Every structure is written in structure tokens, then in C-alpha cells.
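I have been asked to look over a protein record a colleague put together. What it holds is a sequence and that sequence's fold in C-alpha cell form. Please read both lines and tell me whether the C-alpha cells look consistent with the sequence. I do not need a full report, just your reasoning and any doubts. This is what I was given:
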Amino acid sequence: QLVMSEVYYYNIIDSDNDSITHPMAEYYMYSDIHSERARAMYQHALVKYNAKNNAEAMYYLIEAEKSLKHVDDPRLAGVIHRQKGEIYGVECLFDNALQEYKNAYVDFERCNLAYHRMVTKYDIGDLYSKKGEYDKAAEILTPLIDICIKEDETTFLISVLIASSFNSIKCGKIEECANNILLYEKYNESDFY
């Protein structure tokens, strides 16, 4: 069951049905096999989050963190911190979210996951914008545009350009926003946005 739930995760199949993860979470809740326990709690937290049950999702993320005290898995620690940041952000607990995103970034640096670091940088920049700290947001989002172009991450670039454009408008930097729109038109290859 643990592997099956991870297959869903790695293939980006979101589910709010806990028929697989609930028995797994119950099984591992009192287990001393901490690497599997942490993974099980994290997978169940994702399902709870997709079911819009943020309180339970946070509970299982905290349980996963407890197991990580016994296991060195910076990738798993990073995705747990990032998910906690997302929940805190949805609940408008921006300072908590910011700390979790920063923790995630450090974890992703430890295991050299460039794409995860890039996404987490975006999360931090976007959160600064939501907090009204537009200059800090621009310090993160503006260089991220160049990184996305350099790394040929055009799909992700579109999200960064949109966040950066909204931040530019809030700062009154209309020319910067116009430049972002030009880049958007150049790199946007889908009708999604």
C-alpha cells in the first residue's frame, strides 16, 4: 500500500480517497520503522490535504516529522516542510508558512534537488508578495525568471511570470510588468493560462 500511494504521488495523481492511505497510516502509526512510517504519514497527509482537511493533514505531517528525527532523508523532509508551508499559507499563517518554505529550501539544498529548490524559491517569493513585502518578493521572483529560462523550465516560468507581474503591479513597476507580459507571450505554449 505504501508503494501504491507513492506511485500516485510520483505520477501526479491527486486523490482525496483515503482507502489506500488510511489503513497504511494506522499500521505505521506506532511503528519503529521510521523511514516507512514517515513516508506513510506524509502520503496520508497529502490525501487529507486533497480532501480539504487541513487540520488532519497537518497532524500527519507532524507525525511524519517525528519519524524523520530518526532518519536522514532530506528529500522527504523537504516535501514535508513544503506541504506544511502550503497549508499554513492557505490558512493565512504567513510567518509559519515562510519558515516551513525556508526549511524546505535548506533540505532540498542538502540533497541537491534543483527543481524542488526552484519551486520552493517561488513559494517564498509569492508568499512575500501576499504578505505585502513586495521588494523582498521581487528580489526572489525576478532572478527566478532568468533561472527558469536558463534551465529551460518554460512551463514553470509561466507561473513565475504571473506571480512576478502581479507583484510588479502592486509595487507600481508597470514597465517591469510589461516586460513580464512580453516574456509570457514569448514562452507561453499552451492555452492553460
